[in-house]
Amino acid sequence: MLGSNQERQKVRKNTPVRMKDIAQDLGLSTVTISKVLRGHSDIGDETRKRVLKRMEELHYQPNFAARALITGRSWTVGLVVPDLIHPFYAQIAKAISAEIRGQGYSLIITSSEEDPELERQEIEQLLARRVDVLVIASAQWTVESFRRIEEQRTPYILIDRQFAGLPANFVGVDDEAVGLMGTNHLIEQGCRRIAHIRGPQTSTALGRLEGYKRALAAQGVVPRPELILPIGLSGDDCGEPGGYEATRKLLQTTPQPDGIFCYNDPVAMGAMRAILDAGLRIPEDVAVVGCGNLHYSNFLRVALTSIDQQSAEIGKQAALLALSLVNAKETVRPSVKLLSPELIVRASTLRSKAARPQGKTKRTGQSEAKRTARR
Amino acid sequence: MLGSNQERQKVRKNTPVRMKDIAQDLGLSTVTISKVLRGHSDIGDETRKRVLKRMEELHYQPNFAARALITGRSWTVGLVVPDLIHPFYAQIAKAISAEIRGQGYSLIITSSEEDPELERQEIEQLLARRVDVLVIASAQWTVESFRRIEEQRTPYILIDRQFAGLPANFVGVDDEAVGLMGTNHLIEQGCRRIAHIRGPQTSTALGRLEGYKRALAAQGVVPRPELILPIGLSGDDCGEPGGYEATRKLLQTTPQPDGIFCYNDPVAMGAMRAILDAGLRIPEDVAVVGCGNLHYSNFLRVALTSIDQQSAEIGKQAALLALSLVNAKETVRPSVKLLSPELIVRASTLRSKAARPQGKTKRTGQSEAKRTARR
DNA sequence: TTGAAAGCGCTACCAA
DNA sequence: TTGGTAGCGCTTTCAA
């Protein structure tokens, strides 16, 4: 046994073990080894055991490239996100990774930096690598990239952001429900003049805006245009500073808004800073709701009520859908999964006992904070 | 032109374009196509142009698997981190990705969830995929996994956490300098009884502790054991709640500490909460320094002074080192890159005008906050 | 139950 | 300057 091993080492120095090596050691053919590896039934029990034993001994690792070449499957999932640092996407990446790991898949992650052109290139690169399936949170404005993917017949799943008129697989939160939920919560807290700081022209932002309007409409309130502001400041940087600027403007309208539903948490943080800077109280004078439930929402000067977007669940569902797509024999028709958002109530909207959470709602204190360490 | 394309499509339906297809179309051999693709010099100008044109037209994409099989290089970098959601690691991942993108490499990312066994499996998986180089922020206690990597002769780089006695490539921040810097800053701010909430038994935590002690020693102060506490609460969860518990204990010692140097930002956040809950002021009664400079440090009830760990720079340096390793003809001897940390002074330590930042130090207000949006 | 032969798409080597 | 030949390590097919 050991003898033949050493022999091999002599001949092939520093090269990984191949099926051929095992076959030669055992006086079998590579075909037999291959079959054992993949659990074929037509192999003698005795032979199977010998082969498995030798594989162990030599730390045999099948060569993915060779396998991919012949099967046409790379056993990789490609993920494209606009920004890996954003906890929302990081969480999705983590969930996908965890879900596919057990099935022998690996995850190639790329970050498009919110740049459509870069995203296009990244997709090309992943297609060239023949990933078995693509999961994309797109920063595109057009659907052109997706046509290219379809040409290559690589299955793909959009997450987070949808495209009207593109019949593609989609997993994301129901953004209209997000808008409804946030606005209704403010109404329940007794807010009467509710403003909205809206996001860019994405399905996400438009959906939330729509939900905001519908919630008001349900109360017979006609949305006042001066209470719907885009995120302040132009350019890419439309987070905290943008929320600050927009809120400064909002506070100058009379009568002042007494509640603000914000496109996302950074914007809400900016809004809160502007409110505090103006000498007003949160939530007594102005209540604030964010979206995203970033994990630090709890540690702000005023803990921020936010709408959780189920990032882990989005990742998980996307992964499951991805696995089903690669295993599908034929092209299946696109499936759309809309997840329900969840309201996390914190201090920024909690006005006295008037608070009466309803529906899918969670109240929480500091104890919820369970995050991280070791760095 | 179009004619031959359609012909091809007839024969090979739904299969990606191969070199062979282009060769046949143009009456050349695959070898010529291959050379054009890789920019070999020994190809006629005329031929090169024709080939490139046809490649365009057919959207030719080289098959990575085939190329990998023959060259033995997979053109992938494997990254293993303990937790993708942690901004520190996310930032590193992003920086590596950006750095290798231009060189034709893709990044396979896996998260070990701080679980050594899972990390071992992930490394095995990546080795089986023949990644060209591994970058690992390890959650291991032993060096066994690394021996396996060395056996396979895959170059690897440790980041963030080091292992004593393991001569491996390393890129990380100088943790002793971190400890020195944080503690010295507190001293400069006039703190006299400086406590330390220490982390687990990793190189990172031990280095910071060492720096803390050295800074005190330089002042002729002998560190008092009752002022050095491990993160409170046992178990995995040693972040914010742990910092809270440890600080509650610290505040019961007499005389009370007037400054706390914390292992990381979550711990510091817990510490601040405990201090405020005890009715004390930050920084007047107790000043607090964290480590990590998580991007929300600015938005806390009291903005947190923190020591930045250069995550982007770590990622970049690791990527450059990785690229140099895959291109190295022979095994090169391990290189160790220790980056200098950077002190970011905020409200949690800024005591009146007594503040006189010195050395590599940055003072900052809200304006520094430049983060994200579109979600 | 086992294995010989063919070939996946590409590149290395050397001859024309 | 161009291309034939010979594989890379594996799976597929089909014959023994």
Summarize the structure.
Chain A contains 13 helices and 13 strands. By secondary structure, the first copy, chain A, is α/β, with parallel strands linked by helices. In chain A, the strands form two sheets. A seven-stranded mixed β-sheet of chain A has the order 7-6-8-9-10-12-13, with helices on both faces. A six-stranded parallel β-sheet of chain A has the order 2-1-3-4-5-11, with helices on both faces.
Task: Explain what the structure shows.
The structure is a homodimer of 375-residue chains. With 375 residues, the first copy, chain A, is of the alpha/beta class. Chain A folds into three domains: 5-62, 434 Repressor (Amino-terminal Domain); 74-173 and 311-339, Response regulator (Rossmann fold, 3-Layer(aba) Sandwich); 175-309 and 341-373, Response regulator (Rossmann fold). Chain A is 42% helix and 15% strand. Chain A has a seven-stranded mixed beta sheet, sandwiched between helices. In chain A, α10 links the parallel β6 and β7 (228-230). Chain A is elongated. The first copy, chain A, starts with a helix and ends in a 12-residue tail after the last strand. Chains A and B meet through α5, α6, β2, α7 and α11 of A and α5, α6, β2, α7 and α11 of B. Chain A binds a DNA duplex (16 and 16 nucleotides) through α3 and α5.
Write the SSE topology:
The structure is a homodimer of 375-residue chains.
Chain A: H1 2-11, H2 19-26, H3 30-37, H4 45-58, H5 64-71, E1 76-81, H6 87-101, E2 106-111, H7 116-128, E3 133-136, H8 144-151, E4 156-159, E5 169-173, H9 175-188, E6 194-198, H10 203-218, E7 228-230, H11 240-252, E8 259-262, H12 265-277, E9 287-291, E10 305-308, H13 311-327, E11 336-339, E12 342-345, E13 361-363
Chain A binds a DNA duplex (16 and 16 nucleotides) through residues 18-20, 28-32, 34-35, 38, 42-44, 47, 62-63, 65-72.
